[in-house]
Design goal:
The structure holds 2 protein chains of 2 kinds. By secondary structure, chain A is mostly beta strands. Chain A has no helices and 11 strands. Classes of the chains: A mainly beta, B mainly beta.
């Protein structure tokens, strides 16, 4: 079954450093998403991406965050200057249609630890 | 901003019995609801969904019920199996005009053999 692949599975970074989280969505999917889950809290929407541009973002997704689809397969989330509170599990997801009703396929996540 | 709430953080059920997971929402504009299952070290996996124009949707052992007047939905798993032990998240969205899901905090289900 097609899957969304995320790398690395775990990343530890120093506060203030830049990190790039990588995702390979399902090949025929057109819509891409990032969510995060801070330990013990709910899964929160960060951003959606379609046709090479951000289609929607949450208030969490401030200027420190950016997304990019640098080639035909990868989808990345960059955090420019990490803070302690950025420590969380980051999930990438993709879907064929943009309608929220369709159900996404999530990756296994990248655990980001900021020290 | 808790638009979607799962008030039971955990639930234990004997194998073979029914598991009932509950979810409440506050935003009456939501018109599509989903349940996801999550195992440790994995991403959420889509289980079942329901449109607000329905009150029930069934898929094998999984049935989702929606009570719009009460702003409440529930997931029934019958019969429960040990492999169902996971964290279950409900999520809500609009059928169009948005790309995001609003998730609840999850309920950890443990099915005892």
């Amino acid at each position: 079954e097609p899957e969304v692949t995320q790398t690395p599975s775990h990343q530890v970074t120093q506060m203030g450093q830049e990190v790039i989280l990588r995702c390979v969505p399902i090949s025929n999917h057109l819509y891409f998403y990032w969510y995060r889950q801070i330990l013990g809290q709910k899964v929160e929407f960060l951003v959606s991406f379609y046709n090479n541009e951000i289609s929607e973002k949450s208030e969490i997704f401030d200027d420190q965050f950016s997304v990019e689809r640098p080639d035909g397969s990868n989808f990345t989330l960059k955090i420019r200057s990490t803070k302690l509170e950025d420590s969380a599990m980051y999930f990438c997801a993709s879907s064929q249609t943009g309608q929220g009703a369709g159900g996404y396929t999530f990756g296994s996540g990248t655990r980001l630890t900021v020290v | 901003d808790q638009q979607v709430k799962q008030n039971s953080p955990s639930l234990s059920v004997q194998e073979g019995r029914i598991s009932i997971l509950n979810c409440d929402y506050t935003n009456s504009m939501f018109d599509y609801f989903l349940w996801y299952k999550k195992y440790p070290a994995e991403g959420p996996t889509f289980l079942i969904s329901i449109s607000s124009i329905k009150d029930k949707n069934e898929d094998g052992r999984f049935t989702v019920f929606l009570n719009k007047s009460a702003k409440h939905l529930s997931l029934h798993i019958v019969p429960s199996q040990p492999g169902d032990s996971a964290v279950y998240f409900c999520a809500a969205t609009l059928a169009s005009g948005t790309y995001k899901y609003i998730f609840g905090t999850g309920t950890r289900l443990k099915v005892l053999a």
